[in-house]
Amino acid sequence: MAEKNWQEGSMLPIAVQAVVCLTSAVAPSRAYADSLAAPSRLGDLDPNLIWEALIGGIVVCAFAVAIALWIHSALRRNRRAQLRRNAFISSAMNNLNQGVVMTDAQRRIIFCNDRYLEIYGLTRSDLWAGMTGYDILELRRKRGVLGVSDDDFYEKASSPNGLITELPDGRAILVKYFILPNGGSVATHLDVSEQRKLSRQLAATKQFLESVLDHVPACVAAKNIEDGCYIFANSAYERFWGLSRDFAVGRNARELFEPGSAASIEAADRAALASADGQYRNEFEVDRAGERRMVASIRIVVRNESNKPEFLLVVFEDITDRQSLSKELESTKKFLELVVDNIPVALIVEQVKDGRYLLANRSAETILNRRREEATGLTASDIFNAKEAKLIIARDEAAIKKRGMITEEHPISTKDGLRLFLTRRATVLNDAGEPQYLIKTHEDVTNRRQTESRMAHMAYHDGLTDLPNRAAFLQALNQMIEACEGTDEEFAVLCVDLDGLKEVNDVFGHALGDKLLVEVAQRLQDAARGGLVARLSGDEFGLIIDGKQPDAGLALAHQLGEVLAPEFHIDGRAVRAGITTGMSIFPHNGPDGAALLANAGAALFRAKQKSRSTISLYQPEMDQQIRDRRVLHQDLSMAIKNGELSLAFQPQGIARNSVAESEIIGFEALARWQHPVRGQVSPADFIPIAEESGLIVEMGEWILREACREAASWPKPLQVAVNLSPAQFMHGDVVRLVHSILIETGLAPGRLELEITEGVLIEDFDRGLALLRRLKALGVRISMDDFGSGYSSLSYLQAFPFDKIKIDRAFIINLGRNPQSAAIVRAVIDLGHGLEMSIIAEGVETIDQLAFLAREGCDGVQGYLLGKPLPIGQYAGFVGRVEAMELALKTG
Predict the structure, then answer these.
(1) What is the distance between the alpha carbons of residues 364 and 372, in angstroms, rounded to a whole number?
(2) What's the rounded Cα separation, in Å, for the pair 866 and 849?
(3) Would 534 disulfide with which of 119, 179, 468, 471, CB 3.0-4.6 Å?
């Protein structure tokens, strides 16, 4: 480029020289003519001479103009070539796989390629004219992608090895800094994440292989073929020879051992090199510290990629004490027998040709109903009754015929009664490929299936009252509709609200209120005379009554009021409770279960507006309630835009015996709505509306972003849990949303816990499962919320490795009073730990509940006992904002 610039600069002097030469050619003739004409007047000049002078001047001027145009064109061509060259260089630099930053002697940035901006998440708009290297380092520091001082950066980056920078997303960037002769600098930034990963993997593999060889009981060594020097020796080799590997490596046999042993070793080496297949086995004596030992060795010639011998691998063992080896084998046999005996499942080995039992462990004695020694040599017909033996032999023959694994569950009579066993049968073939042995394992799954049955029951029943829940009620309602369609049959749906429950809870506590609900449920069941009674929500029950309507429904409603009128005597206290009832009738008030239940709820709402303990039949004008919900929906839509929503945070702690010991490990973010007219709107009112209308997608995005932004500002790296609605999975790219919010807020993915319900998987199992796996790949934690409240939680746990299971409050409130509740909670904890998932219990409100969960190994707790959902400022000390807490104390 310097040569090109020089050429451009030299064109003008050349042109000037050309003009001067032309001028000098004409000037003498004019001077000569002037000298002749000096004595005379102008009129005496020769006309031809005058014309020649004019023509010569015109020619000179034209030539000068042509030269000037030629020079201008050449300069333009040169500038275009220079621009193309600069564009090519800039494009090439921008397409490098590493970032490049150049500065001039004043440390001003003169070039920064696109790869550099991409690596650190910057844009061209972040840069400005006159920006220096120090400015861009400060910009990166503010963005969280630089963790060293300027001096350390330049000092380490200019070193031969460069500077490795760890970015928050786990990437590793190698920075090298070079000073140019003109005082400027060039810095390269290369993403070496994969190289570092491969390097670590290679080092780990090498360390693993060396560790494996070190734990091999045989002596292993390797030596160079060229000079016979050892290059590796394992721990067994060191122990045998009494030499350290550091001493042995780099020396040959003659330098390490006495001459006789060295000669035997070298002879074996030569034999291995001369063998056709590159392997040689032999036994020979060596002298070990004056003691003669017999060793058995195998030598293998290892070749390189060119198939040339590179080094010799030697494996040998001391076979001097054959008797010792025999004892060790016997010990190993006893060890294996001990292991088989203590396997927690029954193991039986049967000979195929005659069906006789060859081996049975101690656990099998439960099935055989005798000692295992007594069962050896017997057949199934000798051990079991005729009916059971026939069934067992038939299943054995099916497994032998299949020549593979057969798994099934069936009952077996034991001394403890009839138990359910999971039996696996596997056929072992001999060398000829024919069945030789049948291996059978029997695992007692009676307790497990009972637990699963209880949990399946939990999916459709209320944990407190054991009544059917809302899902079961709707299912029964739809079945009733199917049975009545096409007939003149009618039935009524009753929504019954328990009056005064809130007052009981406020005065006597939730524990007594829960007992009241149990008593009310029992009286309702008794009055329903076998009809379906369900608990729909906290203080709301549902009933279905057939017969002539509305007479039968009204009669039952009045009867329910009468049976609940007498006082309830609970824990020595007399408690009264009334009911308010709403009723809808099929087929007049709705074509399906959801409509009937919704209209009965609307009637209940109208009854509660009138007064307590009243009965209301659904009327079409009650659709006003729906209009009210629409108004609330519109207000909610504006609330999201107007910033009326806020977040409250409820602490989550480690399960310990006391609140003081329960260390806070994170918070759950919960939405709150302060309506400008209605005031504080309950989440129970606006969350369902948001779910039904689809506003939950927009609201959920706001909640997730605000929760992540808040958590990222906490000095302590506590976890933050955010609920994701099934609607967020069905609409939009939830994975992209979470990823972008994490990048935007700078929150470490491992600190975010996303709580989902089984509704995410119900609509589209495969799609939901794929989204959950993509979310987990981001590094966030996935928790199953409200575990057990659905109908297929166990299958979901099997399909996806959740990080955490949250036990619903309904299963915690009865702890200490109901043995079944304790058994269910204990089973859930054991199930979660068996699947390597942590467990957290919601709704913990008493010390007894906390102590029970701590004893049973529950990992975490959440509830009013630890703290209510409050603005995060109320928990400033827990998140590490000591200054904020001190200021609050001073100003409070």
Answers:
(1) 7
(2) 12
(3) 468
Nearest to 320 by CA among 362, 286, 290, 359: 286
| Nearest C-alpha neighbor of 549 from the set 587, 508, 513 | 587
| Strands, E assignment, 123-184 | 163-166, 172-179
Question: Which residue, among 367, 370, 349, has the nearest Cα to 358 in the 3D structure?
Answer: 349
Question: Can you list the alpha helix ranges (DSSP code H) found in 249-316?
Answer: 253-256, 259-274
pLDDT at res. 874: 94
The answer to pTM > 0.90 is no
CA distance to 5, 63, 73, 88, 296, per residue, from 77 (Å): 13, 21, 6, 16, 84
pLDDT of residue 6: 34
What is the C-alpha separation between 608 and 631, in angstroms, rounded?
20
Distance CA 692, CA 694 (A): 6
CA angle 340, 346, 350 (to 5 degrees): 85
Low-confidence ranges of the chain (pLDDT < 70): 1-45, 81-92, 322-327, 333, 337, 506, 622-627, 762-763, 788-793, 882-892
Positive or negative CA dihedral for 233, 236, 241, 247?
A: positive
Residue 810 has a pLDDT of 80
Q: With beta carbons less than 8 A apart as the criterion, state whether 103 and 127 touch.
A: no
At residue 873, the pLDDT reads: 92
Q: Measured in Å, how far apart are the chain's first and last C-alpha atoms?
A: 73
Identity at 533, one-letter amino acid code: V
309 in Cβ contact with 280 (< 8 Å): no
Contact by Cβ (8 Å): 847, 658: yes
Among 466, 459, 534, which residue's Cα sits nearest to residue 788? 459
Q: How far is residue 105's CA from residue 181's CA, in Å, rounded to a whole number?
A: 9
| pLDDT single digits (tens) 488-541 | 889 999 999 998 887 787 678 888 989 999 999 999 999 987 779 999 988 899
Q: How far apart are CA 27 and CA 38, in angstroms?
A: 16
Contacts 24+ apart (CB under 8 A), 231-238: 231/311
Tokens read off for 627: 């209009």
Q: What 3-state DSSP class applies to 379?
A: coil
What backbone phi and psi angles, to 5 degrees, belong to 575?
A: -125, 135
pLDDT of residue 886: 46
- Residue 461 is given by DSSP the state B
Which pLDDT does position 788 carry in this prediction?
63
Inter-residue contact 42 to 5 (CB < 8 Å): no
Residue 806: CB atoms within 10 Å: 25
Q: What is the DSSP string of 12-56?
A: HHHHHHHHHHHHHHHHHHHHHHHHHHTTS-GGGS-HHHHHHHHHH
Which residue, among 702, 775, 705, 763, has the nearest Cα to 734 in the 3D structure? Answer: 775
Q: Which residues, 6+ apart, have CB-to-CB distance to 287 below 8 Å?
A: 257, 258, 260, 261, 293
Residue 729's pLDDT is: 84
Amino acid at 576: R
